[in-house]
Amino acid sequence: xxxxxxxxxxxxxxxxxxxxxxxxxxPRAVCLSCAPFxxxxxxxxxxxxxxxxxxxxxxxxxxxxxxxxxxxQTPLLERVKFFCxxxxxxxxxxxxxxxxxxxxxxxxxxxxxxxxxxxTETFRAIRGxxxxxxxxxxxxxxxxxxxxxxxxxxxxxxxxxxxxADRVWVESYFQKEVWPVLTPLGLDxxxxxxQLLNKTLNLIxxxxxxxxxxxxxxxxxxxxxRALPRLVKLPRDDSRQDYVLxxxxxxHYLADLFPGTKLIGHWQFRVTRNSELYIDxxxxxxxxxxxxxxxxxxxxxxxxxxxxxxxxxxxxxxELLAKLNLTEDDLYVxxxxxxxxxxxxxxxxxxxPELRDPPFLARVAPALRDQPDLxxxxxxxxxxxxxxxxxxxxVVEFLAQAxxxxxxxxxxxxxYRTGGDPRIVGALMNAVRNGKQVTAVVELxxxxxxxxxxxxxxxxxxxxxxxxxxxxxYKIHAKMTLVVRRDAEGIRRYVHLATGNYxxxxxxxxxxxxxxxxxxxxxxxxxxxxxxxxxxxxxxxTRKLLVAPFELHGRMLRLIHRETANAKRGLPARIIAKxxxxxxxxxxxxxxxxxxxxxxxxxxxxxxxxxxxxxxDISDHITVRSVVDRFLEHSRIFYFENACQPEVFVGSxxxxxxxxxxxxxxxxxIEDGNLRDRVKRELLDIVLADTVKxxxxxxxxxxxxxxxxxxxxxxxxxxxxxxLASNGLAPKAQAGKGKxxxxxxxxxxRPAADQAH
Length: 757
Fold this sequence. Notes:
The protein has three domains: 152-355, Polyphosphate kinase middle domain (polyphosphate kinase like), CATH 3.30.1840.10; 366-544 and 741-754, Endonuclease Chain A (Endonuclease, Chain A, 2-Layer Sandwich), CATH 3.30.870; 547-670 and 673-734, Endonuclease Chain A (Endonuclease, Chain A, 2-Layer Sandwich). The strands form four sheets. Strands 14, 18, 19, 20, 21, 23, 24, 25, 26 and 27 form a ten-stranded mixed β-sheet that branches. Helix content is 35%, strand content 21%. It is of the alpha/beta class. Strand 5 (231-233) and strand 6 form a beta hairpin. The chain is globular and about 90 Å long. The two termini are 22 Å apart.
């Protein structure tokens, strides 16, 4: 078991809170004799009024996603995409966050969240906010997207709108493709309410049956098969694209499923279930088997939400709620297609280019275009890749070359969400075939990717890769690859560190950073960390890398306190931090104290932010903005002015308790001066200048579109990154100047059994 340093271990009381971390502790008194460097004796005790609710902040983020669907300036199919993503996000929110809150309510947990709300109060606030969001979302669908799609030649037809030829085709399709898959499930004492799987679309059917000379009303359930396309495309000879929703098609022919009865009506509904995994890793002899068992249970977790079509009668809604052990508080009425996530098939189809964002083809980074030997390029200088604007193929090529290079001795890699990319997994398998020692640290508990990771872990093991599942009690979220190579001068370590996963698919849609380096300190740190993940040893500290759960939290606090102290001394002080979420209370309080000392703090937080900016005498010098655009903002960057000697850190961790204390994370410094300048000038400054897609957080928790200064041209940061990538950056901006001094590791004779790279 991993041993944490003093003060970092969680207490037994934290067990429930770690599982459902909405609950946080009340403010702790500060011992002035132990106060961090730079804190004075006038320390303010921050109360609930100084924080935003975690769950409501996330809902604000999802509203910003929905705003992209509402924006008429966004290309039509991109609007549909954001409309679908809004629903997908809400699904996961209910599966995990709302499920946890409901369990807290049922367990009579009385602790308040950081903003002072109980679990019950939070649940009520969530319910109100989600109802507003869902109403706006489907009003957008009915009044904006559907008419616009029809004008663009994409129509959703009701059965009554079909012509004779279409009806013949549809009936044939139903008989051949749909009918054999359907299974009607009657509800009576002999047929209890079925265990409906999570997020499946179903029809509740009301029938009239004659029994013993009397007419009786009965209910039945028909599941809309997941294996079939949700959208049934009608044959057309022209460019029109007409669709019939599968649920509507089944509904039209329902009477055929219940011969001898009278069909009264049918209505769509969907159940969302608790999908959190509960695994006691300490008592699990076989972690992979334990995860598999929990995955099976996930599909049948407790119901947490019921969605029904708007035309569903009140008595049917009540019957469904009773069968699912839910209340009216868990009911959401949908005036539109239930489970619109499946409508993404429209976005992926063949459509007019003007309905999409302009095409963008990521290019190989300039520093690598004329250097086919990646190892030679890395020896020349550190390489910083900015995805998706720099093609992810460079990372794949790094692995492919390592697999084929006869001088490479070992490859070690962390895998969190691979997406099953055959090039990445194939490179590791190929390396084994070529006689290299290959180790993969696979995270089995990557949420909603568990089954995929298990499958690929088994394939890797079968191929001869040494697969390890990390540390008991911690998720391995670090993004790191180590290649050990025998160069002419001796053994040298090549390292790739990143903010994003080794997933070529998401690398096309997520903004992330990756560093390729052979700096000696980085290589030694990476080796030590892999040995920690795969062996039995204790954390001994690092030279350059900041590693959670051991030291990352404390190091970030010290960096913030240093800026605070510099500001008090009249020295230049500034903090710029870009991340997905900001939740950790100690970090927020440290930022408040920095602001009180006069430090300018500019935060770029895509999603959850529990910090309130712009509070008088608390956060006057703090700004928070969020960018939601074509690509998902995913990189984490931390800039500290350090009295005109800037330090820049990049890594996998957000400023959240789970990242600091419940995951293995790696944050690394950018030591090359040119790259450091590039991160500040070409990444952070451009995002801070965004006035098209950036929204600025207000003290009350709302967001407003950023406004350009008078006379200034609007800036859309992601389009600016595309422009820079398309035009090609100067090598100076892409990579450090001159050869780096990364000394090779000299070989020492040791017993063969003790050699580990």
